[in-house]
């Protein structure tokens, strides 16, 4: 039995939404975890200091962390608030480039709760603001690629979990 032959190049989506090709040997795995907090018809989002777009709080899982540990750390770093994980509700896989480094991205999305009286503190240098957003009232291009669909899915899932 022979092994699969890797492609010479991999096409990645860049941080700004362009497509760029990279040598396949440069691509690294990057598991990441994100938390979607829902309040009625709103979700908690940060504004990326790198792109100016709305992002779901989260980021890379370190090799020694569980998904939940990384979720708590990344969410806390970006928002200043400790999340309460509810459930894993979505997964995506793609190829992207972050600061000209190509990754095979495995992204895990959790519904989370935050304290109702939480005061948000954006992560300096990475997040310029953190706020509740009605995703249906914001143009799709205001979101990081794919994030709008994910927050809409989170809203629907949260509604099924708590139909009040």
UniProtKB/TrEMBL annotation:
Keyword Hydrolase carried by entry: yes
Catalytic activity, EC: 3.6.-.-
All copies of domain Nudix hydrolase, residue ranges: 28-156
One MF annotation (Gene Ontology) recorded for this entry: hydrolase activity
Domain of life: Bacteria
Top-level EC class: hydrolase
Signal sequence segment: none
Pfam families per the UniProt record, alphabetical: NUDIX (PF00293)
Keywords: Hydrolase
Obligatory cofactor(s): Mg(2+)
Keyword check for Nucleus: no
Protein family membership: Belongs to the Nudix hydrolase family.
Entry protein name: NUDIX hydrolase
Species of provenance: Thermaerobacter composti
């Amino acid at each position: 039995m022979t092994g699969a032959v890797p492609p010479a190049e991999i096409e990645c989506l860049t941080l700004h939404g362009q497509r760029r090709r990279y040598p396949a040997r440069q691509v690294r795995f990057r598991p990441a975890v994100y938390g979607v907090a829902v309040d009625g018809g709103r979700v908690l989002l940060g504004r990326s200091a790198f792109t100016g777009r709305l992002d779901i709080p989260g980021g890379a899982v370190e090799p020694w962390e569980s998904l939940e540990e990384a979720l708590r750390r990344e969410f806390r770093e970006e928002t200043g608030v400790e999340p309460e994980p509810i459930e894993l509700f979505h997964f995506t896989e793609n190829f992207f480039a972050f600061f000209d480094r190509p990754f095979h991205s495995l992204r895990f999305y959790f519904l989370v709760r935050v304290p109702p009286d939480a005061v948000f503190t954006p992560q300096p240098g990475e997040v310029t603001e953190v706020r509740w957003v009605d995703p249906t009232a914001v143009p799709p291009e205001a979101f990081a690629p794919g994030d709008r669909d994910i927050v809409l899915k989170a809203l629907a899932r949260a509604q099924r979990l708590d139909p009040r």
